[in-house]
Amino acid sequence: MRIKDRLTREIEARRDDLVALTQDLIRIPTRNPPGENYREICDYLDRRLLRAGFHTELIRATGAIGDSDRHPRWNIVARREGARPGACVHFNSHIDVVEVGHGWTTDPFGGEVRDGRIYGRGACDMKGGLAASIIAAEAFVASCPDFAGAIEISGTADEESGGFGGVAYLAEKGWFNPERVQHVIIPEPLNKDRICLGHRGVWWAEIETHGEIAHGSMPFLGDCAVRHMGAVIDAMEQNLFPALAQKRTDMPVVPEGARQSTLNINSIHGGEPEQAADYTGLPSPCVPDRCRMVIDRRFLIEEDIGAVESEIRDLLETLRKGRPGFDYEIRELHRVLPSMTEKDAPVVGAVARGVAQVFGREADYVVSPGTYDQKHIDRIGRLKNCIAYGPGILDLAHKPDEYVGIDDMVQSAQVMGLALHELLGG
User: Fold this and answer.
1) Peptidase M20 dimerisation domain: which residues (predicted)?
2) Which of the residues are catalytic?
3) One-character DSSP codes across 249-285
């Protein structure tokens, strides 16, 4: 039997282990924010990977954004050395999941198996991918014990809130230095026959409009900051949103709607703060003198970040000049440049050939509408040979009744195992 056939059969034989592992990971509720149970899931992975012969390190991102004594940002990196020198393939998965939300018909942290699917928050995004990478690595080591190089598996914090307590911190500390890691696969849920080459850019900012407080029965004696913010939104509706819809990219972004520039109004807060749930009184009658809005601008590789920022500032300056009493502040919260790995990169080719062997067709190449931890591996780690590939359907991420297909996980693990075989000379 050919080694590649033996490897895919070895992974299939571990189906029940793959299901149980995924269920165990889902049942550790690692909600972010605030960042719960990171140490618990890292300890679980530590025990599992030590049994598989990996050397493990638990790393707290001390001082990183989000890290605190109440919610420490723990990460794990595990490494298995081969029989002789060679390249290192690193599988990176984030361990955090988003809030549960409403509308579930299953226990969000139950890991229920039904109709060939595992349900739970994080099932597809991305604990199913993490489990698949572990099974792929363990099966590869069992099938090809004389492999060259090294395999690394990491579970990292805070991807859902920017990744600064996870991959960014590790990259700053040299864990993704191209001298020690040569290939990175991030098992994000982009569908089992698609290779994700990168992502669009993001620019987050907070806009604050100013007014003057006064008695609510005499609003003419004050200046309503919320009305000024309404003028900002109206200008966006009339001018900015139509302009963004005309900006298109050659990047293979999915879904189709994300091939244009987009802007999301993330939140608006104006006037009197909301009181505690047990407060039974009425609000006080005041004209709001402050209103804040957070915007989430996603931009294309063809766009310049300076021009992206100028679009918003120019809109606000136009309002300042033409609207009586209008004044504002703007603060940048977050910026990430677009990233896209070349299709002829070694890790792309190895995964593409694995997809072709498992599915009997060529892989699709896509770009993610939102960012993920490739941004830190690329910009901080200076490692370009990085992709996202994993089981799960992107549209299910962050939704009620999130699930991952068991067959999808097995097949994705087989693709990962075949990529390991090619890249590490098994």
Assistant:
1) 198-319
2) 96, 159
3) -SS-BSSGGGGB-EEEEEEEEESSPPPPTT--SPPP-
